[in-house]
Here is the input.
Amino acid sequence: LRKYSLNLYKELEKKTDLSTGLKQNGAITIASTKERLQELLRQATAAQLFDVNVEVLDKKKVKDLYPVIHDKDIRGGVYMPEDGQADPVGVTNVLAKAARMEGVKIFEKTRALEILQGSSTVIKTPQSKVTASYVIFACNGYQGAINDKNSNWVMPINNFIVATRQMSKVEQERLIKNNYAVSDTKFIVNYFRFSKDRRLLFG
Here is the structure.
């Protein structure tokens, strides 16, 4: 999926002449338990089968790449040099323009009031009804009755992002070398990366 997304973003940037803000600085995923490390190793093996460039890191290498990490509980990790980050607004604009170029009509600020499922699906809106063969729920966890069939399987969570002050290049390299994106799933998904103006984003 990562490889497909990277190739898709590059292809659509050329097609739409817009930018996704994609920066392939590489990404590091850290394991702090033996079980999590085994999971990462399995994922690395699977990725290599699809020709995805991935490197397994020992504790020392993690510390070298991410100097400020408290490495007492670190077991190891994986590094994907071709991975990176994209700007969510940029990605949305690129996808929307590419879709419109293929004849798709996008109706913003149109509330779905009810979804009736049968041989075909009918979506009721304040203005009209839409009949569709497929419906994609691109929603957050608070879908309510609009998707009550799946509500029991979705756990709403809050996501918070903290941005620091702007840092110098020296400070940036002291914290995370080469502007890697770092993630840790010890308890919840924590990630650390720098913004374009060198603010450390944590969420």
User: Anything to note?
Assistant: The beta strands are 27-31, 55-57, 76-80, 114-117, 121-124, 129-132, 162-163, 181-184, 190-194, 200-202. Residues 148 and 159 are 22 Å apart (CA to CA). The chain has a mean pLDDT of 86. Residues 34-49 form the longest helix (16 residues).
